[in-house]
Amino acid sequence: MPNSNASDALQWYRQPRDGLHLSNLCEKSLGKSVSHLTATHYYHVACENEMQNLRKIVVDWFLVNLMDPSVGQPHLLRRIPIELMTELVASPNLYVVPGEKELYELLCMWMYLRIHLGSEPGDLENQGKARQTLRKLEAAQMTPLRYFAERYGPRGSFLETAAGQPYVKVFQKLRTQYLCISDSSVKELDDGRVLPAKWVGGHLLNSWLDSVLYFDVDAEYLPHGMVTSEFFLKRCNRLGIVLTKPSKEWWRWPNVAIGMDICGTMQDYKLKIRFEYDLKLSGLLKYYQRQQILVRGLVVALKEGLQLGHSAKSPIIPLDASLESGMPVTILEVNGWLPYPLKVSLNILIGVPLHESFKVA
Asked: Which residues does 109 contact at the CB level (< 8 Å), separation at least 6?
């Protein structure tokens, strides 16, 4: 096949040869070479030419690798189209590393780069200008959060402006309730001026209502069985980690909920977690023990070039409501052997989150 770009490869493969249509071979060929350098371009090729298999391969690759540092390079991150980013952020299968806060920061950087550098690849001259613009911004110590705070504070927010409207649907899919766990995180959101104040206020009101409804009521009142699989996948918290080698050590996801950390380990290809509570906040353990807690684990092996290897996924698992602090629970057991590095994702839903009808801009 001639040495050319993906579009030329597609045209070459679609030429009839002995009555055979070779577009499927094209999709397989391109699918094997998806990387941080080609993923966005292949996505456009797949959409333009209705290549559904290639599109799925690219989307699956981004679901695992969106938050990898190689994808976060400015000249690559800015090229991810809004419709693709919306699909990725909405997916429960997105490997969010380590949590929703870092995904929020990546989205702010993505918007910031698109505003200053645009979203098209551009020629060499335009790429040089983009790098020069970025260096000037860095020299001025301008960061995405500082940019939005200074430009749209103290009362407005970026998503409420005309320039921010195309990005609203992306942030509507972000699990923003998990950005409002602590006073410090709420202050960061408020100072950042990206999200509308009514979104943050709505989550705080929901948190208050949740404590009023469930803290001192009878156990029979709790809505067990109300959470469907669809609801879980749409509203669960997403946590992740990259494991470069086998280890028996435990890692920690802090502030998963108020006064709650989750620790995890991957020993003998078994994903185990345990809950740890802040004992200074009296009543929390009793509160969480009376909630419905659902979890799901996902693991994928990475091959060279961030290509996806074998993967495993657990069903949605209800945890014992009497779970004690520090008690390990096995979430996923991998049948067979997986090579490192591994990416691990944990989905968890505590209780029944209230509606989010306030997430409009």
From this structure: 72, 77, 144
- The helix-helix angle for 52-65 and 23-31 (nearest 10°) equals 10
Instruction: Provide the edge-to-edge strand list for the sheet that holds 329-333.
Output: 251-257, 260-267, 270-277, 329-333
Q: What domains are defined for the chain?
A: 1-65 (no CATH), 68-214 (no CATH), 229-350 (2.60.40)
Residue pair 333/86 in contact by the 8 Å Cβ criterion:
no
- What are the tokens at 269? 């290809």
Residue 303 corresponds to which tokens in the numbers above? 């091959």
| Residue 152 identity | Y
Of 119, 116, 86, 118, the C-alpha closest to 103 is 86
**H/E stretch holding 349:** strand 342-350
CB distance 121 to 79 below 8 Å: yes
pTM: 0.88
- Are 141 and 134 in contact by the 8 Å Cβ rule? The answer is no
Residue 311's CB: how many other CB atoms inside 10 A?
16
Total residue count of the chain as it appears in this document: 361
Rounded Cα gap, residues 275 and 317, in angstroms: 15
Residues 6+ away with beta carbon under 8 Å from 229: 316
Write down the pLDDT at residue 274. Answer: 93
Residue numbers of the chain with a pLDDT score lower than 50: 1-4, 12-13, 17-20, 123-124, 215-224
For residue 256, the surrounding DSSP H or E stretch is: strand 251-257
Task: Kindly state the tokens that stand for 185.
Answer: 């995180």
Sequence-ordered alpha helix ranges (H) in the chain: 6-14, 23-31, 39-48, 52-65, 74-77, 82-90, 100-117, 124-139, 144-152, 168-173, 183-192, 197-214, 229-235, 284-289
Radius of gyration of the chain measured on its C-alpha atoms: 22
Which is nearest to 176 in space by CA: 230, 88, 238, 252? Answer: 238
